[in-house]
């Protein structure tokens, strides 16, 4: 009886004798296929990613055939310097500059001493891919990375007004990006100022050395905070024109004093709190306070009033 | 039908002499502790008067009990989903300490230790809260101490709807009247305190309907204090938990009457089990004011009805409890004779403590500036009683006189009947006519008389077998419970590491 009870259940049969070979080979093949796909994916992905990577990380300082911005024009860069040096520099610009390499120092000087930042995820492979891309683009009569077509039209009052609206967020950015005021302040924003996360932008026009490089920066903001936002919601050419006009106008002003902002904020907070306290009192005016004491006080007052009336009546009767 | 059993009570106000023995018994057993000084789980009020806490019946101020809104829902007046958030740090409508009273004692030591002086030493009152000398301005039975005062008696919320003349008469010479209203927790069928508790700490015990506060789970929200329209839950400032009358359940479980019942000198208190239909509670609690008394009666089931007995057994109610319900004096007062009425039924908590409304004193007649006490109309007409009918109706009939009139007429008829039986100065015909008018038979009148005047301990207190062992068995292993209950270690004894 005991032996009969131990018949394997249908489900278990697969794991025993019969199905062993098949089930052992099949997963192995599957795993190999998955590994192969995973191996290939990043390689292909990276090659295809290169133009996107360039657009996001390089274009705010470099063009290909569009003239220099903060950094040099990269057209035919592979002919100017050997590939190995370029890859080393791309992977760690600071190290190369610090080593006292004469060409690196020359570039730094040309870039008004703004060093090229070390980009995260810049592997040797990625550098190779980028150089391939630059080489290929250099051969084209007009590269897609020639840079944003920045209008040369002079700034009008309308441009400056529009720029201010965009900065304040009273007019939304077309692609839905966050308005500047969320993180940045300006000299003319009134007592509370703008956001404190980013720097005050009053003098940004001078800081970024003029119209062209400021426009290029806005075309693809590259800081850790701005990039994730504006990668998906880029600022359009017209908007950049208007914003740069606004920054141009404010170039000579002094930035707002953060301490005066803080005092104003504190004062407004105090006034608000006081108003809220009086507001609560008004809302809960009829709230429960006490029963017995008002009752006693009222009765005594009532009695007193009656006594007074009684006395008055008596005195008038006497007269 | 969802049959439950409820330990219910009747207080016969016609017998209450206002001696406060019940209050003292309760105080000594339960609330003679730090933090509970001001609590009177049992208190006796003088009516007309404002009671304890002051004007507890004024729900415009205290917002106790339930209210029905336009779309037929029953809402707690004091709190609710929308009200609880803005009031989360302060529960409004809470009686202050002054509305109860500041508890005090006397400086007795001064009587012995005072330095020799020209005057006798006195024992001055000292606050039990801060230990300083106080000027006593209120007390738990202040109405009694100041009975008929223009401050307290004239502000009784039950005087609503009385004419100016009726109000004047209440305190005029030879018309002055007051009666006593002893109060404990009503152990309501639709308790507002239970519904309002955000911690779920208050519960109505399944087997006997006693409403209790779990001291472990109470989180000092004090919603129950605001919600109970009878103001019978109290906050203990020392333990930070709310407390209330527990109907002396440890005594009931051992077959003894609660302390206040046991000690009652006037023997006004009756206790017994009622069976009721829990499925219809909400429907009844929503009835219009004038139908509430009758509606609450319709919840209570006849324990002699075989169908009810069968359903009760099916619901797990033991034979002992059914037997006890059949002998319940409360069932006779409330259901058979219909002379006991719930207090302030308009609060819609369906209180299970019923009051037999009091008869007023024999009235004197006045002619030629002399007052005669020997009147032809021996037991006056109930409408010319010193306590106006409207006043009693406000207390026991949600402002409607019908049920109160019925209860008083029947009591009066019993008096006429007994007068005819024993003294004989009243004709039998007249007494019978009175009985007939009051919808009462001679046998019924005799039974009312016996349970009112000649009742023994066993007649008054028909305590059901509590079967705690069965109730515990439903919740946990009885052996485990035995470890955790009783004197000594609470929470089970742990051995080893």
Radius of gyration of chain B from CA coordinates: 24 Å
* Helical residues, percent of chain A: 55-70%
Distance between the termini of chain A: 128 Å
Sheet bearing the most strands of chain B, described? 4 strands, mixed
Largest interface: A-B, 13 and 21 residues
Structural classification of chain A = mainly alpha
Task: Report the mean per-residue pLDDT of chain B as an integer.
Answer: 90
Average predicted confidence as pLDDT of chain A? 79
Number of helices of chain B: 23
Task: State the name of the first-level CATH class of one domain in chain B.
Answer: Alpha Beta
Helix content of chain B: 25-40%
Global outline of chain A: elongated
CATH class of one domain in chain A: Mainly Alpha
Describe the protein in words.
The complex is a heterodimer of chains A (319) and B (497). With 319 residues, chain A is mainly alpha-helical. Chain A has helices at residues 2-5, 10-13, 20-57, 77-80, 83-91, 93-98, 102-110, 124-139, 157-168, 204-207, 211-219, 226-230, 237-249, 258-283, 292-318. Among the domains of chain A are: 44-139, Cytochrome c-like domain (Cytochrome Bc1 Complex, Chain D, domain 2, Orthogonal Bundle), CATH 1.10.760.10; 157-258, Cytochrome Bc1 Complex, Chain D, domain 2 (Orthogonal Bundle), CATH 1.10.760. Chain A is elongated, with a radius of gyration of 37 Å. The model of chain A is unreliable at 1-25 and 42-46 (pLDDT under 50). In chain B, 34% of the residues lie in helices and 13% in strands. Chain B has helices spanning 21-31, 59-62, 81-84, 97-100, 109-113, 142-145, 164-170, 192-196, 223-227, 249-253, 259-263, 281-285, 292-299, 306-314, 319-326, 329-336, 389-396, 402-422, 428-437, 442-453, 457-460, 468-475, 478-484; strands at 3-12, 43-47, 66-68, 74-76, 104-106, 125-127, 179-183, 202-204, 211-213, 233-236, 241-244, 269-277, 300-301, 353-356, 365-367, 370-372. In chain B, the strands form 7 sheets. Chain B has a 4-stranded mixed β-sheet with strand order 13-12-1-14, sandwiched between helices. In chain B, α17 packs across α18, α18 packs antiparallel against α19 and α18 packs across α20 (442-453). At the A-B interface, α15 of A face loops of B.
């Amino acid at each position: 009886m005991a032996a009969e009870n131990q018949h394997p259940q249908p489900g278990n049969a697969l794991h025993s004798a019969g199905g062993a070979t098949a089930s052992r080979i099949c997963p192995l093949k599957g795993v190999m296929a998955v590994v192969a796909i995973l191996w290939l994916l990043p390689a292909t992905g990276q090659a295809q990613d290169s133009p996107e990577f360039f657009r996001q990380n390089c274009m705010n300082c470099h063009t290909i055939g569009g003239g220099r911005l903060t950094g040099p024009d990269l057209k035919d860069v592979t002919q100017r310097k050997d590939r190995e040096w370029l890859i080393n520099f791309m992977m760690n610009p600071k190290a190369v500059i610090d080593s006292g390499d004469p060409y690196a120092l020359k570039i730094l000087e040309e870039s008004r001493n703004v060093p090229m930042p070390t980009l995260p995820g810049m592997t040797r492979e990625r550098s190779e891919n980028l150089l391939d891309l630059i080489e290929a683009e250099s051969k084209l009569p007009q590269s897609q990375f020639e840079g944003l077509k920045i209008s040369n039209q002079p700034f009008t009052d309308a441009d400056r007004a529009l720029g201010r609206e965009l900065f304040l967020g009273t007019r939304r950015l077309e692609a839905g990006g966050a308005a500047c005021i969320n993180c940045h302040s300006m000299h003319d924003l009134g007592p509370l100022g703008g956001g404190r996360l980013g720097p005050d932008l009053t003098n940004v026009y001078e800081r970024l050395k003029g119209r062209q490089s400021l426009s290029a920066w806005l075309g693809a903001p590259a800081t850790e905070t701005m990039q994730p936002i504006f990668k998906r919601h880029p600022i359009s050419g017209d908007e950049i024109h208007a914003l740069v006009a606004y920054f141009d106008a404010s170039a000579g002003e002094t930035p707002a004093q953060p301490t005066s902002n803080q005092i104003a904020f504190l004062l407004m907070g105090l006034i608000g709190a006081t108003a809220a306290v009086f507001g609560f009192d008004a809302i809960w005016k009829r709230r429960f306070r006490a029963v017995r004491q008002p009752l006693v006080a009222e009765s005594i007052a009532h009695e007193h009033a009656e006594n007074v009336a009684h006395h008055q009546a008596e005195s008038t009767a006497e007269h | 039908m969802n049959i439950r059993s409820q330990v219910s009570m009747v207080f016969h106000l016609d017998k209450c002499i206002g001696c406060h023995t019940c209050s003292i018994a309760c105080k000594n057993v339960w609330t003679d502790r730090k933090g509970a000084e001001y609590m009177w789980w049992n208190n006796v009020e003088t009516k007309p008067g404002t009671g304890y806490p002051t004007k507890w019946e004024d729900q415009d101020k205290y917002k106790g009990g339930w209210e029905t809104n336009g779309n037929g829902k029953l809402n707690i007046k004091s709190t609710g989903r929308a009200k609880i958030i803005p009031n989360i740090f302060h529960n409004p409508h809470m009686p202050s300490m002054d509305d109860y009273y500041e508890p005090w004692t006397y400086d007795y030591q001064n009587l012995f230790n005072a330095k020799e002086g020209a005057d006798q030493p006195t024992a001055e009152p000292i606050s039990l809260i801060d230990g300083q000398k106080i000027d006593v301005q209120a007390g738990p039975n202040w109405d009694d101490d100041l009975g008929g005062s223009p401050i307290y008696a004239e502000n009784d919320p039950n005087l609503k709807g009385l004419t100016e003349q009726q109000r004047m008469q209440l305190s005029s010479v030879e018309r002055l009247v007051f009666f006593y209203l002893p109060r404990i927790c009503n152990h309501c069928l639709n308790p507002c305190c239970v519904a309002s508790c955000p911690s779920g700490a208050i519960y109505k015990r399944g087997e006997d309907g006693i409403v209790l506060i779990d001291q472990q789970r109470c989180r000092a929200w004090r919603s129950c204090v605001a919600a109970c329209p009878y103001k019978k839950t109290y906050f203990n400032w020392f333990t930070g938990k709310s407390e209330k009358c527990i109907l002396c359940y440890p005594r009931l479980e051992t077959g003894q009457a609660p302390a206040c019942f046991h000690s009652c000198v006037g023997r006004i208190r009756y206790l017994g089990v009622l069976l009721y239909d829990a499925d219809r509670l909400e429907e009844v609690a929503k009835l219009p004011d004038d139908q509430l008394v009758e509606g609450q009666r319709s919840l209570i089931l006849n324990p002699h009805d075989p169908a009810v007995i069968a359903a009760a057994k099916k619901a797990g109610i033991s034979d002992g409890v059914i037997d006890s319900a059949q002998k319940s004096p409360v069932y006779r007062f409330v259901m058979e004779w219909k002379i006991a009425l719930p207090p302030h039924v308009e609060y819609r908590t369906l209180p299970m403590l019923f009051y037999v409304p009091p008869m007023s004193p024999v009235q004197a007649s006045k002619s030629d500036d002399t007052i005669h006490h020997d009147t032809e109309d021996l037991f006056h007409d109930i409408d010319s009683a010193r306590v106006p009918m409207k006043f009693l109706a406000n207390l026991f009939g949600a402002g409607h006189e019908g049920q109160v009139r019925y209860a008083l007429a029947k009591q009066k008829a019993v008096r006429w009947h007994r007068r005819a039986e024993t003294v004989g100065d009243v004709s039998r015909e007249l007494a019978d006519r009175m009985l007939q008018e009051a919808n009462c038979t001679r046998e019924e009148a005799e039974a009312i008389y016996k349970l009112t005047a000649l009742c023994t301990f066993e007649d008054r207190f028909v305590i059901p077998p509590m079967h705690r062992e069965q109730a515990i068995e439903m919740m946990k292993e009885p052996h485990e419970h035995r470890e955790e209950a009783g004197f000594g270690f609470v929470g089970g004894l742990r051995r080893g590491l």
